[in-house]
Amino acid sequence: MGLLVLQQHDFCFLAVLCSIWDLSSPTRDGTHALQSNPCLLQWKHGVLTGPPEKPLSFFLAKQINFIILFLVSQCVEESSDLLPVSASGKHVHSPHKLNIFALKQDLFFWPNILLLNCHFTELEMTDDLDHYTNTYQVYSKEPQKCHEFLGSPEVINWKQHLQIQSSQSSLDDVIKNLAATKLGKVKQTQCFLYMASEAGKKLATSLLEAKKLSVNVLCILMLTLSTLDPAHAVLVNKLWYFGGNERSQRFIERCIQTFPTSCLLGPEGTPVSWMLMDQTGELRMAGTLPEYRAQGLISYITCVHVQTLNKLGFPLYSHVDKGNHIMQKVCSNMQSILVPCGWNQWNFVPL
Fold first, then answer.
1. Disulfide engineering: 103 pairs with which of 60, 144, 249, 262, CB 3.0-4.6 Å?
2. What does each C-alpha distance from 27 to 7, 17, 179 come to in angstroms?
3. Whole-angstrom distance, CA of residue 71 vs CA of residue 247
4. Where in the numbering of this chain does the Glycine N-acyltransferase C-terminal domain appear (predicted)?
5. Domain boundary assignment for the chain
6. Of 327, 245, 335, whose CA–CA distance to 283 is shortest?
7. C-alpha distances in angstroms, 56 versus 40, 52, 95, 118, 276?
8. Under CATH, domain 197-335 is a member of which superfamily?
9. What are phi and psi of 224, to 5 degrees?
10. Tens digits of per-residue pLDDT, 148-174?
């Protein structure tokens, strides 16, 4: 079971995106273009590149985002018809000086099973205790039959503290059995999964333009719409439910450096409300300072962030903790679609 670098003539991985991206015919210089306005990726002489002003990981995150949403929308089972069955396993690797997040996507094919595994490269996953980086997004056509592949060290490094994320709760038995085999303990977390609807995207724009959001007017007049700076990671980390430690702060810093963010700055220039995006293209880590809550700011910043990412061509989705009733209400007000399969995360710790 080998992992092969995707070459110029081998578009197995890109086949997943055929119904989403416009894959043009190769030009005379051997270039293929992946077009999704206003972003452009090029596959030239075996190397995936993007415009120099954007980190390539920004675009790879967009690809993963499309793949995840596509598989979720197709309920995974219907996705196999899009994929050739001749390959054993492939990933995209692109050396790039701005690729702050070095991402890789592995596709595994065998007679009756499909496995998609999105994660950082091995060069990134060097800290055995950093489960924020040691994260895998896993999707399988037959979850109950992928025990052997998920157990392989070529697929997942079970010697590390790690996270496995998926929309498939049916992976639970497989992962728990593997955890026992690998002499570790595992904890499953289940959250709600929301996808932005077209009506919700239009609503965000119309509410902002018409200024019809239920926001404290005096409060909003004191604030300035802006984006986060890496130095703000300390504040975001302090309020993030899944963070609060040194490794999570480093992860947040990299997200801020690489991907779009939105925030409202207070009179002293400190963020009071914000929203980020992670390496999978998911809306993440929204928060508001306690003294600024119950003012409608999180709804406002959500509309701003949705509008920003929608202009960049991102499908929009996020997971929300089952105890976070405020964000559930925000998603409902934004007419987001509650995806029946939900969102799952397994945290594994080797003993």
1. 60
2. 16, 20, 48
3. 30
4. 262-350
5. 4-191, 197-335
6. 327
7. 11, 8, 9, 16, 18
8. Gcn5-related N-acetyltransferase (GNAT) (3.40.630.30)
9. -120, 130
10. 889 999 889 999 999 999 989 999 999
